[in-house]
Structures are given as C-alpha cells and as structure tokens.
Predict the 3D structure of the following.
Amino acid sequence: MSLELNKLAKELSNEISETTKTLKVYETVSKLEELEKQTQRSDFWSDSSAAQEIMRKISRLHSTVDPWLELSKEVEDILELIAANDESMIDELTEQKEIIQKKFNELKKDLKFSGPYDTHNVILAIHAGAGGTDAQDWASMLQRMYIRWAEKNGFTVKLIEQSSGDEAGLKSTTLEIEGMFVYGKLKSEHGVHRLVRQSPFNADNLRQTSFAKVDVLPKITEPKDVEISDTDIKVDVFRAGGHGGQSVNTTDSAVRITHIPTGITVSIQNERSQIQNKETALTILRSRLAQLQLEQHQQKLSDIKGPNQSAEWGNQIRNYVMHPYKQVKDVRTKVETSSVDDVLDGGIAMFTDAYLEQTLSTN
C-alpha cells in the first residue's frame, strides 16, 4: 500500500480530530444525549410549547454534529482499509480520501462561526424608512430577497408579524429564519439598505431614493440567556386589529411590551392567544437586547443604552442602484456587482462571505 496515501490519510484524520475538538463536537453530543433523555419522560409533552422547543433544539444540534461524526467515522474506516495493505484497493482508497478531504474543507467553514450567537436562529425585522410608498415597496422587495436566500440555503421561514403599506409594500415585517449557523451567516445584513431607482409610483417616473432598516437578531428562547427583570418591563394588552379575522378582534389578545431602561417596544398581535403573543414579544425583546449587547460591547444588560435610531437611518450599509446604472455595492467591504436582479433574488452570499472574512481578519 502507498506510504504517501497512508501519510496523507493520517494527516487528514489528525486535522479532523483537532477541528472537532475546536468546535466542541463531543461536548455537543453530550448535551444532545441529555436532551434526548428528557424526551423519554412520561410528562415530556405536558408542556407542548417547551417540548417543541426541545425537539427543535435536538434537530438543530443533530444537523451541527452529525456531519462531523460521519466524517470522523469515514476517515477511521479508510485508515483501517489502508492498514489491510490490499494493493488492489489503492486507486479506490485514494479517490475516497479525496472525497473525505472535500467534505472536510466544506465543513471546516463552520470554524468561521465563532460568535456567541452564531449558531442561533434569526429574528429578522424590516422597517420602511424615508421614501413614502417607494420605501414601503422597498421593504417588501427586501423581504422577498431574504426569503429567497433562506430557501436557497434550505432554511425554514416563518412570518411572525406584518404591517401592510398604505398603497403598496410593507410598513414593517418580522420573520423567523431557522437553520444551521443562520445568525452567523446573516448578521452582516443588520443595518440600513438604500435603493435608488425610477419610481413606479410616480407619474413622471422620477428617480427616487428609498431607505429600509433591517434588524438581524439572534433568537433568544431561553430566559436565562438574557434575564429581564419584571420591574424593567411594562406590559400593555389591547384589541388586535388588521387582517386577523373576527375571532382575533373580539378579545384583548394583542400585547405590547416596553423595556423601560432602553425604551425598546415590541408589539405582537399575530397569535390568537394573549399568552402566545406575550411569549413571542418577550422572545423578540430578549433578541433585541442580545443584539444591542453585541453592538455596544457590554457585558451587563444594565449597561445597555437604547438604540440610536436617527444615527442608524442615515448610515446605510449597502446601496442598490437600479437607475441610471445597475450596481449593488456594500459600503463596508467595497464588494460590488452589476447583477442587481440576482442579488434581489437572494444572491447575497458575496456580501455575507466578504463581511465574514473581513471580520475574521480584523479580530
């Protein structure tokens, strides 16, 4: 058997072993086993909401560790076959080693996602800014862009809340995106997005500049991860409006939670139950506070200041120009493309990848 093949296979095995240690794969396996033990309890489904959250966590952890466990097993198998010293298998084993190497190179990208919330799902909120109906149409275009991006990556999208524009588009929308490392991949989209185009809502077809603000928040489901004191929040209930249907409007099911220290307000009326709306609002509030902690580099929740909306609105992270020329350019990384339609169809990987590389190189 080729000594060179044996050497390369052992080097690959060592690399995989070191990477699984860095990613704490086997620690995650232990957590997974503990969670799976909980599902065997007779009262597991007595709290269906908590049970579903545990099942989602199990699924997410499996998607994280299973590829690494399979890869470790594959490289062990190939080392055993090499040790058997069957010369007739050398070509087949060389090819198999290359396949494992490619899988490893792809999985190794997980190492880039080392932020405290990079493995979390995302709460994505889009708010129309300056620009009237054009801005509301721009918000709906951005919503479609992120839904298409999620679909192309095999992620799950759920609509949490949506407020339609007066004439067209959306005043605001909130989505939940679920998938592997989704916050790590999407966090670079957080900020103001600027569109320049000929307005379809103007009789003279004049050039119009519109703004929309995108909030990318790590979904925080565990209260212990971001602990909020009851004395720091004000909870108001009111009658849900909009397109919820008659059964939604007959009770005070909508919930508004205000975080007094920061002034952050979250309103939810999408669910029929006041309890469900309150829980969703608290999840989004925790997620907003977690994002603010990251932005402001604060260890304690009490040190966080409220978001500076006026500064954010004037500081776009990316420009999308559709007239008089076509270009999408990221202000931070300087990455640009003339394929505006491809970007708006979910092709944002060039921007998210460049931001991630830039962040890693400066840390």
Summary: Residues 3-112 form a domain with the Methane Monooxygenase Hydroxylase; Chain G, domain 1 fold (CATH 1.20.58.410). DSSP finds eleven helices and eleven strands in the chain. The radius of gyration is 24 Å.
